[in-house]
Amino acid sequence: MPANAEPTTALRICLLRLSAIGDTCNVLPIVRTLQAVWPRAQLTWVIGRTEHRLLSHVEGVEFVVFDKRGGRTARRALIHELRGRRFDVLLHMHASLRANLLSRHIPAPRRIGFNGRRARDFQRFFCNEQISGHSDVHVVDGFFQFLEHLGIQDRHLTWNIPIDPVDQAFAKEQMPEPTMLISPCSSQRWRNFRNWRAENYAQLAEHVHRAHGVRVVLTGGPTELEAEYGHRIGSLANAPINNLIGNTTLPQLLALIARAHCVVCPDSGPAHMATATGTPVVGLYATSNRHRTGPFLSQKWVVDGYQIHRIRRADAIAETHVSNVFLDCAFHGFRITVNNPLLAQKRTGPMAIGRGIQAHDGRSGGRRHVC
Fold first, then answer.
1. Which distant-in-sequence residues (6+ apart) come within 8 Å of 303 by Cβ?
2. What gap in Å lies between CA 235 and CA 313, rounded to an integer?
3. Using one digit for the tens of pLDDT, what is the confidence trace for 132-151?
4. How far apart are CA 274 and CA 253, in angstroms?
5. The pTM is what?
6. Contact 198/237 with Cβ under 8 angstroms?
């Protein structure tokens, strides 16, 4: 079949990606490409409950919601919802033991999963086809390999997550002026060494306010650690701080990110939410590889210690000094210069960006459409 050619019959395609927030955002370009190239395809997405709260208004997709905390009750509910359903293709885009076991209840003759070391937790036993291509690519590029396996070469780098006007009004109220959004913490997990020091964030907030008159909004979840970060940053920074940590819903957070002039955060969901809204991201990466998990359209602004040290220890992020992250931000012109000697490829001078950010070069061919 020629590249991109739509099958003669409308395919029923089921995508399985439960979590996390960043990864589900990274799946959206695959959904948008399917909708553009195979418009008759019927798309169903098995997704986690938290992630569904963010993406529930994405049009043209039927969501089947699974509550990962629901145990057997949630599994029985999923089985009941899928009873009697038949799909032509399962795109098994989540290699975890839970997702692998759930995939048994998704009936499809073609069951496409990852290849090689990416097929974690015995995923190959739950699939009968594997994608091909390099494994050391960005997560988004890896997801596009599922479409390449289906013969689709186009790439529509479009997210278009609908934002409710009520949430937009909330964001406008919280951000009436040029604003930098700082999301200081990544999700809590074992051996999580991603979070920068609160003192460094406070110095950064002081810098952008003193040099550019820019206000700072802090966002995050309701955990004790994030609350402590918010309190420390607010008390240490000699600058106005709007601390919204623990006080936003996911849709409100998306609206705030969409309105912000840039986002500063470690390897975490907000980096990919910002990509989805076209907001520039200054990512702080020390123990994870930005070329695999960094903000897909903001690679040039990532402060990258990982490529130099390749370290994974508790104090790794501390080796990123605050002076490496000071920004020369001309916010009204959407320009950012990062004073960052740690960048793998140094750049000088202002780098113009806007809502139509150019995608970085990928390994795969095909036409690339950027929102």
1. 282, 283, 284, 285, 320, 324, 325, 338, 340, 342, 343
2. 28
3. 999 999 999 999 999 999 99
4. 10
5. 0.87
6. no
